């Protein structure tokens, strides 16, 4: 290669905070989304889709970083100097959609939507700038019965995709309770919005950094193990202890927890209203039979976004996994949401209650892989049937075989490379094929094809030449099943039989 060609050669590289997805992940994701969609529709939610791009003023005010249009979101100006941004989540675009189509939509309006969202934030382990969410929301229902229903649906969704009961918990809290605590320590009003947000973010990290880490974040700040310093909320010691008392108010049951919260918010009408709503949600959960550990009242849940106005909830997976450092940790949150009564209202100038949940698609898929969910393995285990090309002058005939399989609904492909039979078999293995179709000149003269079961063949190869000792007769019978000839007209039936053998 010449020096000029080397100079012009591009470096293949992926921007930080982004990831590529292979066919296995794509297939598993689609399979999982189908199960989530089934659950949402079972609850009466219908699909809607909003674009990736919105006006920045429809999004920015409610993001964690509020000072500049580009802080927290990817933004640009169009040709008439309007600021546009890639959507940060799926909730703010829904609020805009509902406000714009308010008169035409049924109320309450129940919808779901999935898609990519984008965050202009510092990437890190498990923290991406582009990721997928799958949301469900009820707009126009002021009753906390709508919040309780979302929590029940979240539990049903996790079980439908393959998370066993006992391996998850839906935690419920109420931002009004925290608002009452913040009012009591002097952080009420618009002037303290930025400090309240720091407090929210600090509490939201309780599972990651523990009470001592949260105490630092509520005070002067915290230095993490990497050496990065996060500035704190600057609260006084007594205020810090009151916030920590709020997060630690969980009891053995909903009755005990709400009693503890009554004490924490004493003197705050808004806090008392939040506790009353939690009691009502607990009553509804009990009436529906979900009070068996699937859904619990947990004061440590606050959610990091400022637009939540009432009940908030989080789906937490309780089983343990190995993290990147080899430590055993609890898997943690895969979904969260809450009530946001102000988002639609700011477009309409009138109260419009709303509540909803967002599932982190990649996080949930990672969880399903961790528990060995059949849903994931079923979506990723089968590659196409490969028809080998033994005689290039007969490629038209091989294409006829492929077309016959496809017309029968069997995923199939013709080998289009230039390699010989051995390399073609390796290609089929790499494609995850469960069987190949072979027709050389001898088979063609007889009007036959040979079917080779790659899965069974690999199993038999692992038994060795002795044919598994005492079970040699069975071994030989299985060898006959692993590679056999059939009339060309029976190729569909033969391939179907092999595929069915492996589920």
Produce the secondary structure layout:
Blueprint: H1 3-8, H2 23-42, E1 46-47, E2 53-55, E3 75-77, E4 83-86, H3 91-100, E5 109-118, E6 130-139, H4 145-161, E7 168-174, H5 175-184, H6 193-204, H7 206-218, E8 221-223, E9 229-231, H8 237-247, H9 254-264, H10 269-287, E10 295-297, E11 311-322, E12 328-339, H11 345-348, E13 354-360, H12 361-370, H13 374-380, E14 385-387, H14 395-407, E15 412-414, H15 421-430, E16 435-438, H16 441-446, E17 448-453, H17 454-463, H18 472-482, E18 483-487, H19 491-501
Parallel strand pairs: 1-5, 7-10, 14-15, 14-16
Antiparallel strand pairs: 2-4, 3-4, 5-6, 6-13, 7-11, 8-9, 11-12, 12-13, 16-17, 17-18
Written account of the structure:
The model is unreliable at about 60-70 (pLDDT under 50). The relative contact order is 0.10. This protein has 3 domains: about 15-140 and about 340-380, Bira Bifunctional Protein, Domain 2 (BirA Bifunctional Protein, domain 2, 2-Layer Sandwich), CATH 3.30.930.10; about 165-315, Bira Bifunctional Protein, Domain 2 (BirA Bifunctional Protein, domain 2, 2-Layer Sandwich); about 380-500, Rossmann fold (3-Layer(aba) Sandwich). About 40% of the residues lie in helices and about 20% in strands. The protein has about 500 residues and is α+β, with helices and mostly antiparallel strands. The radius of gyration is 29 Å and the shape is elongated. An 8-stranded mixed beta sheet has the order 1-5-6-13-12-11-7-10. Strands 15-14-16-17-18 form a 5-stranded mixed beta sheet. It has helices at about 5-10, 25-40, 90-100, 145-160, 175-185, 195-205, 205-220, 235-245, 255-265, 270-285, 345-350, 360-370, 375-380, 395-405, 420-430, 440-445, 455-465, 470-480, 490-500; strands spanning about 45, 55, 75, 85, 110-120, 130-140, 170-175, 220-225, 230, 295, 310-320, 330-340, 355-360, 385, 410-415, 435-440, 450-455, 485.
